[in-house]
Amino acid sequence: MSKSHPRAFASAFGHIGPALLSVGSLILAWELYAQFSGISPTTLPAPSRVLAQALQHRAALFENTLPTISATLLGFSCSLIAAFVFSVLIDFFKPLRRALFPVFIISQTLPLVAIAPLIVLWFGFGLTPKIMLVALVTFFPMLVALVQGYAATDDDIEALLASMGASRVRIFLLARLPSSLPYFFAGLRISITYAVVGAIFAEYAGAAKGLGIYILNAKNNFRPDLVLAAVLVSATLTLVLFGTTILIQRLAMPWERLGEKARP
Amino acid sequence: MTHNRLELRHVSKRFGELDVLGDISLTVRPGEFVSILGPSGAGKSTIFKLLTSSLQLDGGEIAFDGAPLRGQRPFAFMPQHDALMPWRRIIDNATLGLEVQGMSRSEARARVQPLFAEFGLDGFEQHYPAQLSGGMRQRAALLRTISQQSSMLLLDEPFGALDALTRAGMQRWLQSMWEHHNWTALLITHDVREAVFLSDRIYVLTARPARVLTEITVPLPRPRRDLASPAASAIEAKLLQTLLNPDQRT
Ligand SMILES: Nc1ncnc2c1ncn2[C@@H]1O[C@H](COP(=O)(O)OP(=O)(O)O)[C@@H](O)[C@H]1O
Ligand SMILES: [Mg+2]
């Protein structure tokens, strides 16, 4: 046990070390090119300038990040609740799947550039259209993840529960729902990144405040450094949310990482 | 003559074109350990699915304690793979049957906890299945099976997935457990030695569509200690002979 800590640390570094290296060298190359090629900072600002501007405009950035965070989290929560409700309905009434999936699949083919301005047109500049757009892009991946997760339940476990006299609802709660957890979290990790992009897209199409509208204004003012500063913020936001889902997964599924350890 | 705990009369089952169970008749008396021995794919697991009502029979009938089998099944079933829930600790896997019967978690735990020592699982109550070795997982699955306190155990190749050494250890252990408990069991196996070592009687099935090829009694006295005593080996040889030459019936 005591030995596994430094080893876990080393292996964690082994995982993220290469990523740090590749991202680091990319930024370094960009910095050198922007500094020494003579390119105008209004075309390609150096990373150091982006960072400096981000710090200088941190109050405005912060003010515009809060609405994006609430749109992302509210939209994603709605989407999770809806995906869960529909996944349960589909699990208990199989024909529903064939009735509903085509509708959901079509909803996924709608181009965001077309749908975002329309939703803003219909529902105004408030929070509602953002929530709807975030839900639209994240609902289906979450639904598919849950439905697949239920289906991945071990047949033997279901046969065992049936032999014990467990009802269909009981089998769902005791076996199908827990079996779907790995699929649920895999879906969560992917969807949370879509959610941030969806929120920014909705704001871009029209909003009073938010990273999306901030990016639009910066672009119109020929300030690529501020566009990139907002991108930096949104990337950080996505990474934090992504990391949070991994943390929640570890807490929710403590058994998942035990198999790797030595058995008695 | 004592009554039968379980009786199958001319049971048959087919899956569409596939004729799986041709004609199966067998009996198990209270306190008896009976094995079903047959080739892979013969339909042995299908017999258990009929008993636990996850499948319906096409023909024949099943009686339990003299009455037709219907409604809540009186069996504790152990599937071919241990089927432990990876997300439940061993204690909570062991209490699953009692919980499904409606007992509170704390009461079920109190009931099952004292059995852990006998199953060689003392101190592993709070472990997850992934932390246990193959043999321990199998014992945990067996603990879950017997703690349901049903009138009869159905064991589907409980040791099939274990390595030879662990399997031999588990067979000895089950045999010694058998002597202390008044269990009635039906065991599925394709291991001739296991069948002889554990059983009072053995039914040998043919390949699909399965019929009962022969029924033999194992007169070896209990307690049995030696997996390969000369007397046991003689019965084994006879069984193998029957299995390999199903046409020359004795
Ligand atoms: N639900 C099912 N539908 C169709 N075929 C099945 C089903 N269950 C089992 N079978 C087939 O029936 C045969 C017997 O299966 P099984 O009872 O599991 O054999 P055994 O346990 O003796 O190895 C196999 O050929 C298997 O493919
Ligand atoms: Mg089988």
Automatic annotation (TrEMBL), chain A:
Main localisation: membrane
Organism of origin: Devosia limi DSM 17137
Segments traversing the membrane: 12-33, 71-93, 100-125, 131-152, 183-205, 226-248
Residue runs in coiled coils: none
Superkingdom to which the source organism belongs: Bacteria
One CC-aspect GO term: plasma membrane
Membrane topology: Multi-pass membrane protein
Pfam families in the cross-refs: BPD_transp_1 (PF00528)
PANTHER family: ABC TRANSPORTER PERMEASE PROTEIN HI_0355-RELATED (PTHR30151:SF20), ALKANE SULFONATE ABC TRANSPORTER-RELATED, MEMBRANE SUBUNIT (PTHR30151)
Residues in ABC transmembrane type-1 domain copies: 61-245
InterPro entries: MetI-like, MetI-like_sf
GO biological process: transmembrane transport
Keyword list, A-Z: Cell membrane, Membrane, Transmembrane, Transmembrane helix, Transport
Protein name in UniProt: ABC-type nitrate/sulfonate/bicarbonate transport system, permease component
Cell compartment(s), UniProt: Cell membrane
Similarity field: Belongs to the binding-protein-dependent transport system permease family.
Automatic annotation (TrEMBL), chain B:
Name of the protein in its database record: ABC-type nitrate/sulfonate/bicarbonate transport system, ATPase component
Domain of life where this protein originates: Bacteria
Family to which this protein belongs: Belongs to the ABC transporter superfamily.
Keywords from the named record: ATP-binding, Nucleotide-binding, Transport
rRNA-binding is among the record's keywords: no
Membrane-crossing segments per the record: none
Residue intervals of the ABC transporter domain: 6-232
A GO term for molecular function: ATP hydrolysis activity
A Pfam family annotated for this UniProt entry: ABC_tran
Disulfide bond found in the keyword field: no
Annotated InterPro entries: AAA+_ATPase, ABC_transporter-like_ATP-bd, ABC_transporter-like_CS, ABC_transporter_ATP-bind, P-loop_NTPase
